[in-house]
Amino acid sequence: MLSKNEIKYIQSLKAKKQRHEAGVFIAEGPKIIEELIRQHAASVIKVFGLLSFFKEIPSSVLSKINHVVISEAELERISMLQAPQQCLALVHLKEQAFEPFVAGSWSLMLDSIQDPGNLGTIIRIADWFGIEHIYASADTADCFNPKVVQATMGSLFRVKMMYGPCEQWLQTHQPACYITAMQGKSIWETDAISPGVIIIGNEGKGVSAALAAHATGSMSIPKLGGAESLNAAVATGIILSHVLQP
Amino acid sequence: MLSKNEIKYIQSLKAKKQRHEAGVFIAEGPKIIEELIRQHAASVIKVFGLLSFFKEIPSSVLSKINHVVISEAELERISMLQAPQQCLALVHLKEQAFEPFVAGSWSLMLDSIQDPGNLGTIIRIADWFGIEHIYASADTADCFNPKVVQATMGSLFRVKMMYGPCEQWLQTHQPACYITAMQGKSIWETDAISPGVIIIGNEGKGVSAALAAHATGSMSIPKLGGAESLNAAVATGIILSHVLQP
Q1: Among B125, B242, B246, whose Cβ lies nearest the Cβ of A234?
Q2: B5-18, pLDDT tens digit by residue?
């Protein structure tokens, strides 16, 4: 059974300010929650789920986590999803500050990515390609937004998502740093490109002038047809696949 | 001024059945509508817009289209968007049946893609890379769904989106035909691959066995990290970029 206060508290975590003040975010769905309790049990505060969900989890795993059986009606009240998916977890939110540049590796820098779906998809792409660090401007969408958590499909727990002062960081570390631009070097010809940071610009405005000023190179995805642009996450996937190609 | 019947009619076009029976779909937003009236004026039935929108359009263009000034309140009533964008157009919906395979070119085949955002993004990617034909199973999301139209950013009018019997078509035309599979040939090594049809599977279930049986080859996107899968649209973009690389 959920108390009124508990329901109110969970619902309040829809708001970024509340999540960060409480240091708690919400993850939903069996796939992501099973991964959480098996691999990151220490970050799980509490799991709310239907009896049918818990029945599938070995008791040796269940015994280690704080969990409570709720009804479908209760799940509907606390879920942020249009179609609630059996379970919901409260998870410790760890703010991660910018870390130094790791020379010899590829990283992403997100310059004000606004769409939660795009952000989640970019985190999932980074995880697929083994990119460990994502540096994001403070005005990039919050990776603990329930829509982002959902879209990452668990990758949020494997990629280090850091928010901070991008321009200052580029100034301090001076990494090899790439932007995409129509006149940039074709990604089909990036044979001997040194690893560095790829800056992904805002969906409408692209990379800001302040960050673009630090670019040491620019790349372009060859355009053979009529579309004016590519979705930010799609472009990220294409660029990563080409720069990582041995 | 909009009549009650007009509002009701436009709202009814939210439903696939209504759209296809009426042969009419909705496009929204200045970008897509300006492109429509400049380049595809014959398919535009009527444009509803705020005075501020029409003021930006040269009268020589405006004189050729059926248009009506509406208020913000009226726009809100007919718009399918959470944040209506100045204008909305009714457009002729042309059903396109499967065409024969075009030897020597790359095409896409969509096997039950369900998410409207994914479908719109795939159409936009196809347009970017100059892919002219998309064959889709009858149970793929409707490309005239307002969310898809929105996500294509105008590409819907440049790419031929056809719905029909995929399996029968593959049987008849026997094109080179590729699926993605974990054990497929890495797209980083697809040097001398013959152009053909790339089948993009359903978001959850992948490519159906019936279509996979017609594959003449399989490809994989190298996975270097932990994510279990890539978003269908992202995978489409990555694969196309590599197979088109000269």
Answers
A1: B125
A2: 999 999 999 999 99
Contact (Cβ atoms closer than 8 angstroms) between residue B28 and residue B81: yes
pLDDT given for residue B242 in this prediction? 96
Q: Smallest Cα–Cα separation from B24: which of B128, B149, B195?
A: B149
CA dihedral A42, A48, A50, A54 (to 10 degrees): 20
Q: Fill in the DSSP letter of residue A142.
A: P
Distance of CA B46 to the CA centre of its chain: 22
- Say which of B128, B154, B230 has its CB closest to residue A230: B128
SS (H, E, C) A8-62: HHHHHCCCHHHHHHHCEEEEECHHHHHHHHHHCHHHEEEEEECHHHHHCCCHHHH
Tokens (6 digits) for B180: 């993605």
Closest by CA to A200, choosing from A130, A143, A138, A118, is A118
Please report which helix (H) or strand (E) contains residue B44, including its range: strand B44-49
Q: Which position has the token pair 């019936």? A: B210
H/E segment holding residue A223? none
Longest CA pairwise span in chain A (Å): 60
What are the residues whose beta carbons fall under 8 Å from the beta carbon of A39, sequence distance 6 or more?
A: A157
Give which of B128, B187, B188 to mutate to test A binding, by max A Cβ within 10 Å: B128
* Residues A206 and A116 sit within 8 Å (Cβ to Cβ): no
**Rounded to the nearest 10 degrees, how much is the dihedral formed by the CA atoms of A150, A153, A154, A159?**
-100
CB spacing of B117 vs A117 below 8 angstroms: yes
Q: pTM value? A: 0.94
Beta sheet of A67-69, edge-to-edge order: A24-28, A87-92, A44-49, A67-69
Chain A residues touching residue B228 (CB < 8 angstroms): 153-154
Residue for token digits 């379970």?
Answer: A87
Q: How far is B240 from chain A (nearest CA, A)?
A: 9
Query: Which strands, in side-by-side order, build the sheet including B44-49?
Result: B24-28, B87-92, B44-49, B67-69
- Structure tokens, A73: 């009606």
**Nearest by CB: A155 against B125, B226, B234:** B226
Q: What DSSP character marks residue B231?
A: -
CA geometry: angle A89, A91, A92, nearest 5 deg: 170
Q: Which two tokens stand for residue B215?
A: 């594959």
Q: What is the mean pLDDT of chain B?
A: 94
Q: For chain A, how far is it from start to end, CA to CA, in angstroms?
A: 55
* Close Cβ partners of B190 (under 8 Å, ≥ 6 residues apart): B219, B242, B243
| Cα-only R_g, chain A | 20
Q: In this predicted model, what pLDDT tens digit does every residue of A220-239 receive, in sequence order?
A: 999 999 999 999 999 999 99
Chain pair A-B, CB pairs under 8 angstroms = 114
